[in-house]
């Protein structure tokens, strides 16, 4: 396997801090990866006049994977992350929801994955002012429905649940549901069901253990994945992958958290778990398992940042994980 | 005060059962109300060829309030409840979220109200097929934003939180947020803040006690109110009011539940709490308090339906509430 090219975009605020922690963990593994830094976000805008300079986009396009920290988005400025998802056609946003040892969860047996369509829906960017106010267009295409549903069935173990609101959005969500069941026919060994998005928001609380893979359109996926993160310890632990045909991008679900930035106390778990997703995606399965297992031990022992009830700083938690990696390997 | 006219629409499935329970409770109060039955829903369609016959709509328009059970909506048929909300311009959907004694809640100190705009957003009904798939139009008008925000500030005690996604929907949700802060200026004694909808889905789980009134557009309100119901015992306990300038409609958040319909075991709490909201809205404050207090005692004593861990039937629970009303009055 040739050397992989990973573009690192730290971004703003705690994005930089958790990325440094993740890179420090990765540094002790024997990986055939070349890391290349690129810039994006608010600080980048202040320096280079663009929240996502062309050069960063070019580097990203030529990479095997992108590790993305978090950016601060200011009203009126182009969102670096939404632009990257669209430009690189990263159509599948994958958000695992899992209860780790030592973490307070609503239930212990939660282990599901939200697969969120990442390129259209109300994120199409089509909005206009009208005489009475404003309008946005929700775009749902057959092609995007097909590929996101295919993706969901491919990663499912037992069941895929399509989440929609076809009782109200009869054409757009009706199409999504229709395509979902068409795709389901190709996977007779996987159970297929569909649920209304409002009911799903309830079921995540009352019976999250009933679900394996959820597949849904962009905005519902945005809302449900934050909710789901709340069930298993919050955004500090929620990783995500943005997968396309050519490129891929791995980022924590949390933002740049200006309120705690600079203090060195941000929880690096979501970023490190995002790196684990990246390692597996690039074929470094064994290394991915190693980092996740080390992290699990550290969580179990409570060697964690203040948000999880510990008293370690971001980099100290990373050091603990590195020690565990040494022990385990 | 003249006699009030209340139109009763039982609907389908458990809608009929919980309505009978609620009417039985109301029957022992000395109310200056005339109840008039009207039909809507799937059974109504089978009998009269329409899910909401003109006659029902006319009766509804001439009423002081509508008590609505639940209807079964079949794909391709007009939704009776959405039609009623629109035709009667019931612009404010009010959904209290409160932890009652004897009910398992995520936290004990939850007491918030979701105010959901009820007439537009993705419920505008504007959808079309395109070459690639389908499109829906999300309509946000200044007028609807104004009146829903006014409504929210009027019922708030301490704080109103506007929920939106203006980082992505810069024009439509940008307008909503802008109008929200304009309206807030008229209520300097009430705190005003705004939160992204995905973050709100998380905060409902991690810090629901921090909120008083949430105000939001139609679809976010739909999703968040089901989620919120999950925090305080589920849909069996979630009432709602749909308020307009002239008319008003009170309904449980749950549906017609075909799976348990006909067994007489549906939880009547949400319907009874909806009646309590109606009583207060019509000026029967004392009677509203009486029913709510009686219900609280019955919940505390565990004289409840199977979904809440009891062994009473729907009508038996109603009888218990009536006994308590006698004791308390
Ligand atoms: C920052 C924002 C544009 C983004 C989104 O809405 O997709 C974030 O909430 C997420 O979920 O990754
Ligand atoms: C039945 C459905 C059309 C309705 C809605 O989406 O408004 C329901 O979910 C609700 O919340 O009252």
Automatic annotation (TrEMBL), chains A, B:
Keywords: Magnesium, Metal-binding, NAD, Oxidoreductase. Coiled coil: none annotated. It is an enzyme of class 1 (oxidoreductase). Residues 5-321 form the Isopropylmalate dehydrogenase-like domain. It comes from the Archaea. Pfam families: Iso_dh (PF00180). This is 3-isopropylmalate dehydrogenase.
């Amino acid at each position: 396997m040739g050397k992989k090219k990973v573009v690192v975009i730290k971004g703003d605020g705690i994005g930089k801090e958790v990325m440094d922690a993740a890179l420090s963990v990765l540094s002790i593994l024997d990986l055939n990866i070349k890391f290349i830094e690129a810039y994006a976000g608010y600080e980048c805008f202040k320096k280079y006049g663009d929240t996502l300079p062309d050069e960063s986009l070019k580097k990203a396009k030529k990479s095997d994977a992108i590790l993305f920290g978090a950016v601060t988005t200011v009203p009126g400025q182009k969102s670096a992350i939404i632009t990257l998802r669209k430009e690189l056609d990263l159509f599948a946003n994958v958000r695992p929801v899992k209860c780790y040892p030592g973490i307070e969860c609503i239930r212990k047996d939660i282990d599901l994955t939200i697969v969120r369509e990442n390129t259209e829906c109300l994120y199409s960017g089509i909005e206009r002012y009208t005489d009475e106010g404003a309008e946005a267009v929700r775009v749902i295409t057959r092609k995007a429905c097909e590929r996101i549903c295919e993706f969901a069935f491919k990663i499912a173990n037992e069941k895929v649940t399509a989440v929609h609101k076809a009782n109200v959005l009869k054409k757009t969500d009706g199409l999504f549901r229709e395509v979902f069941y068409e795709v389901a026919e190709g996977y007779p060994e996987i159970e297929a069901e569909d649920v209304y998005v409002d009911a799903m928001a309830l079921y995540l609380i009352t019976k999250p253990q009933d679900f394996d893979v959820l597949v849904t359109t962009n905005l519902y996926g945005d809302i449900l994945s934050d909710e789901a993160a709340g069930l298993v310890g919050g955004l500090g632990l929620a990783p995500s992958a943005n997968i396309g045909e050519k490129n891929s991008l791995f980022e924590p679900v949390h933002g740049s958290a200006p309120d705690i930035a600079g203090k060195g106390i941000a929880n690096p778990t979501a970023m490190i778990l995002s790196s684990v997703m990246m390692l597996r995606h690039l074929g470094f399965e064994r290394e991915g398992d190693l980092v996740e297992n080390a992290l699990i031990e550290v969580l179990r022992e409570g060697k964690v940042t203040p948000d999880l009830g510990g008293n370690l700083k971001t980099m100290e938690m990373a050091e603990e994980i590195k020690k565990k990696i040494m022990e385990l390997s």
